[in-house]
Structures are given as C-alpha cells and as structure tokens.
C-alpha cells in the first residue's frame, strides 16, 4: 500500500514541496506519495492524519504553532523552537492506536545547507556571532540551529517590528543571548557575524521600518570580513537583493533551496522510519527537480 503524506497549510497551491518530495521518494526507491491539503481546518487535517494509509503530515503556515496543541507528543527541539513542520506516527508496543509526534526539521535543513556549502563553519563558529533577519517561525528555527549546531554565543536579530523581536528574545532567553540591532549606527560598532541567515521576503523596502532592516543588514554585509549568508528566500528567484550584495562583497552565499531539500529529506526519514543520509547523487537530482520546477512554473 502506498503511504500518503499530506501538506497541510493555506495557501499551498504554488508550493514546490510536492515536486521535490515525490521526486525524492522515487530517487530513494520508497513507495510514498506527497499530496496537498490546502485548508485552514484543523479537524480535517487530524482526520487525514489518522487514516491508515497516511504516514504523517507536513505542516506549514499558518498552522506551525497552533498544531503543536493537536499532537500527542512534541519533540524537544520543536518545543524549544516553538513550532512544528512535521507530524509522524508511531504505534507503541501493545497498543492499537498510533501516537502522533510533532517535530521541526527546518533547523536541520539550515544546518545541512550551511555545512554542505561551507564545511569549515562548524569548526569556526563556536563562540562567534551569528545573525538572523526576521522574527517569524523560520527565524526561530534558524536561531536554534545557530545555537545547537554551530554553538554561537550571541545572535543578532534584525526585524521591522520591535514587539516580534522582544518575543523572540524572551523565548530564547534561557538558552542563548539574542541581541536586537535597531540602527545602522549600532551595527557599525558590532563585530561582523560569521553567519547571517535572512528569512524575509525579497521585496523592495517601502516603509521606514523595512528600509531600516535592509540598511542594517547591508551594513554588516559590506564590512571587510565576509562570512556566510544563507538566503532563505528563493521565490521567484534565488538571486535576491541580499544575495547580490553579499556576493559582491565576497560572502559565501547559500540559497534557500538547499534548506528546503535537506529539511525535506529529514522529514522523509521520520515518515519512513529511516536513519540515513541520501547519496550526493540523490541530492544533486533533487536540486535539478527544484530548479526545473522553478523555471517552468508561474511562481
């Protein structure tokens, strides 16, 4: 029986995930199918989850936080991040009903993408500064990855809404120091971060708050000590404003498509109960699927 995975979110019609996930299933020789569930109805998703042929859910906006309340267990990393993007099922010995477990693989995608492009980062990063642009769910996963995987001792946070930054600072206060950066002048007096992760859309800044975020980010990118930029935005193109500036200043730029691929592989390992990394050939073919889909789709 083909196992089903449902992508639960709204809107998701333009998502690249089905093409990538189904391509990966085929490349890995696994009998699974990834299908959209475009909905805002939690009960509908739960009904799907507990069907015998459904192995789990991929959970995206706007459900990543609220769906934590509807699974039986939440992994430690998801609890720290504060959101889930993956739900899988396990049947404890001696029971008939499966248990649903929520976890987060976005932070794994961040780690694997950075390490693949810049293998020396894990040796260079402990005790250094990191930076995250944005304060949503992706930003929280990025912060967790910088702390857990790269052992950074302080993470700068740049965002257009102060209240959102304050919430992130408080959320992570028990484990890592988050420093909001709110002006170019402040940025000029700070150590350049080794890793910058941008989680915001690639749009022309219009409001003063948006312009401030762009100017602060650019200030760090134009210093004389280039590091590594992970640009999470990849639609409609990976060639974003931030990426172009970073490349001209000799920063190593990692496209967000890498995060999507690697976090998707981590999801599959939960759904299919695997504990393995795919071969480099499989990852390369997954990249081909992504870029072909981006080229041929109206995104």
TrEMBL record:
Q: Name one GO biological process term.
A: chorismate biosynthetic process
**GO molecular function terms listed in the Swiss-Prot or TrEMBL record:** shikimate 3-dehydrogenase (NADP+) activity
Q: Which InterPro entries match?
A: Aminoacid_DH-like_N_sf, NAD(P)-bd_dom_sf, Shikimate_DH-bd_N, Shikimate_DH_fam
Q: Where is the Shikimate dehydrogenase substrate binding N-terminal domain?
A: 7-87
Give a single Pfam family match.
Shikimate_dh_N
* Superkingdom: Eukaryota
Under the heading PANTHER family, the entry gives: BIFUNCTIONAL 3-DEHYDROQUINATE DEHYDRATASE_SHIKIMATE DEHYDROGENASE, CHLOROPLASTIC, SHIKIMATE DEHYDROGENASE
> By what name is this protein known?
Shikimate dehydrogenase substrate binding N-terminal domain-containing protein
- Organism encoding this protein: Trichomonascus ciferrii
